[in-house]
User: Fold this.
Amino acid sequence: MTHPGDQLRKRYGFGDFLFYTALFAVPLVTALLAIARDGLGWLLAYLVVCLAMTVLILKFFCTHCPHYTRSDTTLKCVFFWGLPKFFNRRPGALNHRDKTVAFAAPAVMALFPVYWLVEQPGLLVTYILSAAVAVAALRRMECDRCVYFECPSNKVPAERRTAS
Assistant:
């Protein structure tokens, strides 16, 4: 779905980052609440898993993104704001490993808390609905105007890619 008059998103503002951080915080906090019931150990394990998966995403996926490959010293996108660019820039197409990490790492973060969520149906429903809304909002508002054309989720039509 294209947005009338919208250009490709070549830059993001801090407000964009805050919006998506708040949106994705709801399923994260719901997962943390479900896991916390069984103790601090599992909660810390999940946080470590999330941190590790985020590092993998940064290294194998984000390093190809135009927002990362700019000459700026810090990253400014909807997911990371002001984060130093720890890894070398790798503009160009994603290889098979990069694509695998791009799908597997978020899946690990999303599926890890399911065991605890199933035991608490109210939190499970909140988790599923809030995650669905977050992903749907990202797809609807960003994927059809994203400058990261190598992203497997990019929906920018070919004619808009060449016009940019």
